């Protein structure tokens, strides 16, 4: 029984990692309906910025927690900058074009940013210092829940709640929702749509940076390509939860994190009830995608997405 | 002067933005920090020049990227060729050039041209699904893989001939297209996109992991090259032969696409893209038409997959990753969705560009990414805007037919 | 883009090409370097260029080869088979006489027939697929790294005989290298009958951690892990093991044996085993090469640097011994002459594998790889 519990917790932690990246993804999508393929790259740049900060402050004698906070802030600031610049250069001129043009522009941006970091930094995997300190109170259960796991779980829940409240309650959030519903109408009502979209990119990219620094600290190493797989999984999670929906991104991430381990869980379950069926872990990603397809066939707008209303 | 100060501002912004990654390199284990201030200077100069070039290009276009786009020299040229009496000579000329090309170029160029032609075929196949039907497919490489593995496996186990595998590859891929299409066509927009992406990944993962079937990551080597009435070619000659095969197949595919576009199903497809509900009201079999589009698009990929396997003589799952699907999609969008000429031009550009950037070594993919963005900015509707066939009523007698 | 801009761009390209043409007008001996220089596997391919350039520099400083300068021509294949054939054709049209590369076994397999028809020897620092040499299909292929079958066997025998493990979990990264190694380890264990393979599974490279597969290892009650793959995944696995307080022997391949895992996993890597080429970290040539790399590029060399350096040395030596760049003479010289390289004293057997590149087992002791066998 303990095995299943451990599997569940491990799955939820992985899910929280996906959610953390998916939140920014889904937010940008919610406002301008663009699958921002370069989001994973922003996440990677956040991790590298964090690394640079950690490297610069490593000898300063600051406590690790202090370095972590500075790394997070620096990562968020610079990633917000990258996000805004990217939007200005690659997406804004295409706002009136067909929906697929910005998608291709995003793919180009993603290739560009990957190679930019490859050339500016290195092609190798570089060690990322463990910026999240070991918490004393977690010692007894540290094999179940490490301190980085806890931090990631807490931060992604906080981000989800914060983001939801921000969009529900603040003036800017209202402007965002209006822009998401109808850009032209929002503009007529005096909302500066360009500013709202820039802001969306800023927030989304800053969130990616939080993910980048925390997850890099969790896995202990980064290279220029980590954004690709992370972006793909986050995109999957966002769609699974209903793209554009913020609680959906969280839920989608968690479901994906647990579902990915179905091969292991099922194999163990079959062994327990005496059946000799082994589903190799090799098919982990395939199982996750199969599940995604199944869920979307029965709920075509994702778990928490609102079904699109057909206007005639 | 105002431009210059704005340029300086932009360049300052870029310098600050890129400073951490471009200037500092840290080694956290040995606690060494390397400062590379030279890079900052390059960034400053580079971004200033780029900004000024950009503004200058904008000014020539009248401020808006897309506004001045309507009648560029390129469009005029295309329009003139497309409608005027030049049309036939130009097409014949191109065909002639393509036919005699192998006489003048090296083996290397033969290889990349053959690959470019394969991508023309792939682009045209995906064009049916994305361009004409408006269904975003991010897993198109899966059908390509099905075709390649059909030939590779049948050849490996049963020494099947290339010419027999060609239709079989198309057939199997079409079958996969139908299998995928039936359950997912209910989905719309980005949900369809992610499901096709998932499908593409599943196919690749199965090929990678199911060793006893597909030989896993080590792939299949020594695939027979195509023969001509039983005659075998050496490596050099077969590269040229495959080029001709690909060329002929591209011609066939263009012909089929053209016919399909003008057919009843093709027109229904275009109409469906615009307004599904109206089409249903008109009694169009929505699912049937879409499945047909998926199957036809997939069969192109299958056929060119067989050619690809024959050209490479070795395949493994690395050739069918998500990046491959994204590349083919870029071809379709950049070409101008729905336009046959555009897709062909885009396929050739996108395949040959990285090759001709080879002299820039490590920078080639950086420039490729930037070029992709730039091309989208300057021609957001694609290189060639798809033209819709205009049907005019010739006389008003009761038995009027369209066209 | 406007016409004027196009014109200036074209002009720039023409000038570049012309400059390149002038440079190559001088007689040089061109050594091709092919592999992943961009894309996700660039970290495996880029160190090879640097190794080749360093060897070329030292040869040129010493007066060149056969009275000519050595020139390095690098071509990127992104480890993609389709690009590998283009890169191979490009190198041939650039008139290289020998090629170092490719990096991935798949890309190498795709490119070899092309080199074969052009009579160009190919030497990989990293392609370990057994069939590349043992199938006998590619007489023009050599490598300075040993191959999967031998490594898998050595690791499995070590696990069973020296460590006395009975229930082994074999994990791989689904790549050709890692899976090949894992399969040979599995076959060796099953054949010997001394131990059982209780788990044989693949993991996806690039995931943030590998906690769940470790849970499964625990669940099936394995008493040791054999992992086939590279250091990024291995370090996440050993870090996970420490976190979960799993004290199992961890045995891996030479994709793991190196400084990287020590830097990334730190103290967590203590006690792990990995097979690796006979110790060359103390080899004076290797040490000098690393110093030269630090001086020239300001950083530590990356993956397969030692093997690539050895390949370049083997080539320049063979060309010097053969007295020409002729295919038959060079390949004969590679097979006949022992040469002192960064991985030790080597020559090549008939199939193309290096003689003198053996495997031993290393263990991380006090933060350093130490030979145990």
Can you characterise this structure?
The complex is a heterotrimer of chains A (about 300), B (about 400) and C (about 375). Chain A has about 300 residues and is mostly helical. Chain A has one domain: ABC transporter involved in vitamin B12 uptake, BtuC (Orthogonal Bundle), CATH 1.10.3470. In chain A, about 70% of the residues lie in helices and about 0% in strands. In chain A, strands 1-2 form a two-stranded antiparallel sheet. In chain A, helix 2 packs antiparallel against helix 3 (about 65-90), helix 5 packs across helix 6 and helix 9 (about 225-240) crosses helix 10 (about 245-260). Chain A is globular and about 65 Å long. The mean pLDDT of chain A is about 85. With about 400 residues, chain B is mainly α. Chain B has 2 domains: about 1-50, no CATH class; about 80-380, no CATH class. Chain B has helices at about 1-25, 35-60, 75-85, 85-100, 105-130, 140-160, 160-185, 190-210, 210-215, 235-260, 265-275, 275-280, 285-310, 320-335, 340-355, 365-380; strands spanning about 25, 30-35. In chain B, strands 1-2 form a two-stranded antiparallel sheet. In chain B, strand 1 and strand 2 (about 30-35) form a beta hairpin. In chain B, helix 5 (about 105-130) packs across helix 15 (about 340-355), helix 6 (about 140-160) crosses helix 13 (about 285-310) and helix 11 packs across helix 13 (about 285-310). The relative contact order of chain C is 0.12. The longest helix of chain C has 23 residues, at about 5-25. Chain C contains 13 helices and 15 strands. Chain C is an alpha/beta fold and about 375 residues long. The model of chain C is unreliable at about 15-25 (pLDDT under 50). Chain C folds into 2 domains: about 30-145 and about 280-355, Response regulator (Rossmann fold); about 150-255, Rossmann fold. The radius of gyration of chain C is 22 Å and the shape is globular. The N and C termini of chain C lie far apart (about 65 Å). The chains are: A mainly alpha (about 300), B mainly alpha (about 400), C alpha/beta (about 375). Chains in contact: A-B, A-C, B-C. At the A-B interface, helix 2, helix 3, helix 4, strand 1 and helix 9 of A face helix 1, strand 1, helix 8, helix 14 and helix 16 of B.
């Amino acid at each position: 029984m303990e095995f299943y519990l451990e599997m569940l917790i491990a799955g939820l932690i992985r899910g929280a990692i996906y959610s953390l990246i998916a939140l920014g993804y889904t937010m940008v999508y919610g406002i301008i309906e663009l699958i921002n393929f370069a989001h994973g790259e922003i996440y990677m740049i956040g991790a590298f910025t964090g690394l640079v900060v950690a490297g610069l402050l490593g000898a300063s004698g600051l406590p690790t927690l202090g370095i972590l906070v500075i790394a997070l802030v620096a990562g968020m600031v610079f990633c917000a900058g990258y996000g805004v610049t990217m939007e200005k250069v690659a997406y804004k001129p295409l706002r009136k074009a067909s929906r697929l043009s910005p998608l291709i522009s995003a793919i180009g941006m993603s290739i560009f940013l990957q190679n930019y970091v490859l050339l500016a930094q290195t092609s190798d995997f570089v060690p990322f210092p463990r910026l999240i300190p070991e918490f004393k109170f977690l010692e007894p259960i540290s094999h179940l829940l490490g301190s980085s796991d806890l931090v990631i779980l807490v931060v992604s829940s906080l981000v989800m709640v914060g983001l939801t409240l921000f969009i529900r309650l603040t003036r800017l959030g209202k402007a965002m929702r209006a822009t998401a519903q109808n850009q032209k109408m929002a503009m007529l009502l005096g909302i500066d749509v360009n500013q709202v979209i820039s802001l969306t990119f800023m927030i989304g990219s800053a969130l990616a940076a939080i993910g980048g620094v925390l997850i890099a600290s969790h896995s202990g190493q980064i290279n220029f390509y980590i954004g690709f797989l992370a972006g793909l999984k986050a995109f999957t999670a966002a769609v699974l939860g209903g793209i554009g929906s913020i609680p959906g991104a969280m839920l989608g991430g968690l479901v994906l994190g647990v579902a990915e381990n179905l091969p292991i869980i099922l194999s163990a379950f079959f062994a327990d009830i005496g059946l000799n069926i082994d589903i190799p872990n090799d098919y982990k990603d395939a199982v996750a995608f199969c599940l995604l397809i199944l869920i979307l066939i029965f709920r075509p707008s994702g778990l928490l997405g609102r079904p699109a209303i057909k206007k005639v | 002067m105002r431009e210059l100060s704005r340029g300086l501002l932009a360049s300052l912004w870029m310098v600050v933005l890129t400073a951490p990654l471009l200037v500092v390199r840290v080694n956290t284990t040995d606690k060494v920090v390397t400062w590379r201030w030279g890079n900052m200077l390059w960034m400053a100069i580079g971004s200033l020049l780029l900004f000024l070039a950009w503004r200058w290009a904008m000014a020539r276009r009248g401020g808006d990227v897309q506004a001045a786009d309507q009648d560029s020299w390129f469009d005029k040229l295309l329009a003139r060729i497309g409608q005027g009496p030049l049309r036939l000579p130009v097409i014949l000329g191109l065909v002639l050039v393509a036919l005699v090309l192998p006489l003048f170029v090296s083996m290397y160029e033969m290889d990349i041209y053959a690959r470019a032609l394969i991508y023309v075929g792939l682009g045209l196949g995906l064009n049916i699904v994305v361009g004409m039907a408006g269904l975003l497919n991010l897993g198109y490489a899966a059908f390509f893989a099905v075709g390649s593995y059909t030939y590779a496996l049948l050849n490996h186990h049963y020494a099947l001939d290339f010419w027999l595998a060609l239709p079989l590859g198309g057939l199997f891929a079409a079958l996969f297209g139908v299998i995928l299409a039936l359950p997912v066509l209910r989905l719309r927009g980005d949900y369809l996109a992610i499901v096709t992406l998932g499908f593409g990944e599943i196919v690749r993962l199965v090929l990678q992991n199911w060793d006893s079937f597909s030989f896993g990551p080590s792939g299949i080597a020594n695939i027979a090259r195509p023969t001509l009435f039983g005659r075998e070619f050496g490596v050099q000659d077969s590269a040229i032969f495959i080029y001709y095969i690909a060329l002929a197949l591209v011609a066939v595919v263009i012909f089929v696409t053209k016919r399909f576009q003008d057919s009843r199903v093709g027109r229904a497809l275009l109409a469906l893209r615009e307004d599904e509900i109206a089409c249903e009201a008109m009694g169009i079999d929505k699912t049937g038409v879409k499945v047909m589009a998926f199957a036809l698009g997939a069969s192109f990929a299958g056929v060119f997959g067989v050619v690809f396997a024959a050209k490479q003589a070795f395949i493994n799952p690395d050739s069918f990753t998500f990046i491959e699907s994204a590349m083919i999609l870029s071809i379709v969008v950049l070409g101008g969705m729905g336009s046959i000429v555009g897709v062909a031009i885009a396929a050739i550009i996108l395949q040959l560009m990285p090759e001709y950037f080879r002299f820039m070594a490590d920078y080639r993919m950086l420039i490729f990414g930037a070029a992709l963005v730039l091309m989208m900015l300057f021609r957001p509707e694609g290189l060639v805007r798809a033209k819709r066939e205009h049907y005019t009523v010739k006389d008003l007698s009761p038995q009027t037919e369209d066209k | 883009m406007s016409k004027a801009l196009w014109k200036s761009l074209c002009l720039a390209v023409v000038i570049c090409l012309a400059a390149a043409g002038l440079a190559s007008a001088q007689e040089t001996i061109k050594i091709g370097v092919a592999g992943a220089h961009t894309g996700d596997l660039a970290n495996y391919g880029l160190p090879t260029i640097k190794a080749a350039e360093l060897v070329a520099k030292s040869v040129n400083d010493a007066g060149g080869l056969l009275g000519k300068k050595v020139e390095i021509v690098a071509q990127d294949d992104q480890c993609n088979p389709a690009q590998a054939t283009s890169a191979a054709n490009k190198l041939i049209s650039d008139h290289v006489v020998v090629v170092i590369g490719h990096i991935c076994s798949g890309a190498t397999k795709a490119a070899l027939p092309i080199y074969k028809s052009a009579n160009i020897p190919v030497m990989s620092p990293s392609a370990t697929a057994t069939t590349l040499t043992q199938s006998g299909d590619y007489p023009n292929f050599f490598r300075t790294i040993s191959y999967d079958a031998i490594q898998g066997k050595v690791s499995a025998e070590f696990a069973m005989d020296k460590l006395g493990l009975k229930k082994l979990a074999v994990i791989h990264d689904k790549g050709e290298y890692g899976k090949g190694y894992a399969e040979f380890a599995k076959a060796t264990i099953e054949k010997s009958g001394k131990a059982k393979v209780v788990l044989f599974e693949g993991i996806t490279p690039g995931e943030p951690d590998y906690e769940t597969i470790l849970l499964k290892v625990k669940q099936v009650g394995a008493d040791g892990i054999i992992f086939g793959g590279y250091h990024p995944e291995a370090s996440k696995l050993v870090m996970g093991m420490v976190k979960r307080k799993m004290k199992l022997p961890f045995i891996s391949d030479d994709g793991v044996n190196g400084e990287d895992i020590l830097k990334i996993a730190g103290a967590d890597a203590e006690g792990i085993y990995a097979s690796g080429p006979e110790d060359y970290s103390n080899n004076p040539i290797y040490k000098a090469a690393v110093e030269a790399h630090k001086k020239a590029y300001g950083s530590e060399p990356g993956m397969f640097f030692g093997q690539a350096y050895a390949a370049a040395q083997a080539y320049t030596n063979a060309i010097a011994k053969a007295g020409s760049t002729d295919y038959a003479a060079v390949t004969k010289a590679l097979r006949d002459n022992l040469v002192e390289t960064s991985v030790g004293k080597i020559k090549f057997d008939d199939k193309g594998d290096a003689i003198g590149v053996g495997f031993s087992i290393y263990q991380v002791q006090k933060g350093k790889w130490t030979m145990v066998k």
